[in-house]
Predict the structure of DUF4310 family protein.
Amino acid sequence: MEEKKGFWYADWSFPIFVGLLSAGVFAGTHMYYLYGIGAFNEVAFVAMLKSGIDTGVYGAVAAFGASFLFARIIEGSLVGILDIGGAIQTGIGLGVPALLLGAGFVFPVANFAASLVTGLVLGLAIGYVIILARKFTVGQGNTTYGADVMMGAGNASGRFLGPLIILSAMGASIPIGLGSLLGALVFYIWQKPITGGAILGAMLFGAFFPVAL
């Protein structure tokens, strides 16, 4: 019981995690808006944003992303699991930027520092909305049937993405590819999903051997 009162299990720490993830994803959309690379989402979904950038019409991607965000906030409040893919990657990473760009607010998406702050504030808001909603709904009971608030990938398909991430990293540059491969190997030895190791390894080596944009 004492362990569950610590930082990792506290209600107040959940919005911080959501805020940090949202800041990174929103900044990734900023990179994509300026340089055409960096969006944290599925190729088909990013293509919708690309179409909006090219044509100036963001209605489709804005409605698509915002609906995902709204649905996942409700889902997170009720079942205790916030889908990172739907809420943060699609909602924060596509829906909100599309709404801002469609309304003429380009600065939060075009400026790196502003994109980080915007994503952080949005993530904190989402986290607190979910926490408050749970306190007034399922949180009123003595049990939530084991569904404390946590963040999930949405499905189990992510475990099969490791080799694809390594190949993609190798296509970016040799050092980043080696970093991704080494990260995946470390996680394999550690008996953890290699996807996380491949991503972290690519990010680490990419910081020391950046790709010229």
